[in-house]
Amino acid sequence: MSGFPTLFYKEVLRFWKVGFQTVAAPVITALLYLLIFSHVLESRIQVYQNVSYTAFLVPGLVMMSLLQNSFANSSSSLIQSKVTGSIIFVLLPPISYRAFYLAYVLAALVRGLCVGAGVLLATLWFAPLQFAEPLWIVAFALLGGGILSSLGVIAGIWADKFDQLAAFQNFLIMPLTFLSGVFYSIHSLPPFWQQVSHWNPVFYMIDGFRHGFFGVSDVSPWHSLAIVTTCLVLLSLLTLEMLKRGYKLRA
Amino acid sequence: MSSMTPAIRVRQVAKHFGSVEALGGVSLEVQQGEFFGLLGPNGAGKTTLISALAGLVRVDSGSIEVMGCDVVADYRNARRQLGVVPQELVFDPFFSVRETLKIQCGYFGIRHSRAREDWIDEILANLDLTGKADANMRSLSGGMKRRVLVAQALVHRPPVIVLDEPTAGVDVELRQTLWQFIRRLNQEGHTVVLTTHYLEEAENLCTRIAMLKAGRVVALDSTANLLRRFSVHELRLKLAPGVGLPPDLASRARNKDGVWSLAFDAYTEIELLLATLRTHGCGLEDLEIGKPDLEDVFVRVMRGKDGLSPLIPGAGGNAGSVSPAGVAG
Question: N or C: lower Cβ tally within 10 Å for chain B?
């Protein structure tokens, strides 16, 4: 794993140096979502018994921010270094494709967790939270963040220009995260859309994560865990295979 | 002939990008300690060959070794032996010069130590970057960024250094500093491979030169041999008005813009030529001796006037030998 600690450190340092943009800004955005949605819907919706809408919303926003920023970190780092050509500094040394994968995914996960923790801390003022089954919180945060970090690596390698990455982010990642039950329970949806939601893996990440807070969820957390773990394994294998072949990295 | 493992061994390397043949069976060897020039026009395959050497390009067939390590099968060791200065002026805008060098060390598994810091300080001093060590990469001029690229290639003390057009866009003073440093590294035993479009640089620095054309090696020999074989001394004469060159000399001379050029092999011939002119009463207005230069050789080779075989020593196990198949076509 020669080179792994440094590549991981470099990736963390990269986002930390622009912390206002990479950590503070997403926290503020999530806070604005909370203020607006809770103001409008607090008195109108109650998803679970004894859980206010604002409290219901907080884990969803935490997880959504965590996922989006995990994706953003690995994908933006790779596309930037590809476009500027500085990716060569990572390709010339004896860094294995496994070390490359782990460094980018773990650094992206660190950013996702930082943003998620930031959102959680900032929103604690607005709603009393329970931590009914904290292990589920940790498990879904790590697995979900890992999945989106891997997807970020795939997108960053696949995209040749910023426009393509923006398409990946806006046409895939954003709809998947927004339509995953962050702002609502899928039981409030018509049957057809409930079925559609079950095909969205992000739904299971949010639902399982929320289960850790309230001890209740739309589907069993074990069911969500199985789906999320399978997704992580499959995406990791795909990413590793791309890196092993040098897809779009080594001509 | 050396029994040492060659610093670089390229065997029958072919690479296509779609239907374009970038390398068509290139074979060459660079011995340890050599200052080797890789020349050719744009699109000749120089950068593709260097990229293949560095593992950035995967070849279709053939093999490449750096210090005996295959760049695919034993890529970790091969890359540790190699420092590459890329052609493009690339940098990571998030970091300072020192951070950039420390990170590059870490990629090669070189952990923090006094020795590492001293070596970084030494590189910075030699490349006149000490004053900019803590400056962000974005704030550096083009020439300074180029020097940082050289520094990055050297942080892991590679025995083989490849410089892909390192002086493009670099001012004269900086170029001198850079070459002084690279020359010193070469004298200390580092093998240096240089590609450049400044043929004067190649002529002054390189002990051996390969010329590539359309993905094939079309010349490979010591610089001295190439100059001897394909470039000649010339006596350039401007005659007094109304005077013509004697017929026996005119038949072997070229006239361009009123200046006659007469090729000669040894300086002793000059006296004979001048005596002939005197005998025929040819007054001179100006006289100049032209030395052979690599540009001349390069132009001749690229125009393909002289065929391939005389330019490449026959395969016989010598350093730099190229098998006939390697230069076919």
Answer: N
Distance between CA atoms of residues B227 and B73, nearest Å: 38
Predicted confidence (pLDDT) per residue in A178-222, tens digit: 888 888 888 788 888 888 888 999 999 999 999 999 998 889 999
Establish if A250 belongs to a structural domain: no
What are the chain B neighbours of A1 within 8 Å (beta carbons)?
none
- Is the same domain home to B139 and B209? yes
Quote the number of domains for chain A.
Answer: 1
Structural domain harbouring A203: 4-245
Interface contact flag, A3 B86, Cβ < 8 Å = no
**DSSP letters spanning A103-139:** HHHHHHHHHHHHHHHHHHHHHTTTS----SSHHHHHH
Question: Is B56 in the A-facing interface, judged by CB distances under 8 Å?
Answer: yes
Please indicate, yes or no, whether residues B243 and B143 belong to a single structural domain of this protein.
no
CATH number of the CATH domain containing B254: 3.30.70
B152 and B248 together in one domain: no
What value does the mean pLDDT take over residues B159-169?
Answer: 87
**pLDDT at position B156, please?**
93
Size of interface A-B (CB pairs under 8 A): 79
How far is residue B320 from each of residues A193, B208, B294, measured CA to CA in Å? Answer: 70, 9, 19
Q: Could you read off the pLDDT of A173-184 as tens digits, one per residue?
A: 888 888 888 888
Could you tell me if B224 and B243 lie in one domain? no
Q: Is the pTM of this model over 0.95?
A: no
Instruction: Count structural domains, chain B.
Output: 2
- Whether B150 and B283 map to the same domain: the answer is no
ipTM for the complex?
Answer: 0.86
DSSP 3-state percent helix, strand, coil across chain B (nearest 5): 35, 25, 35
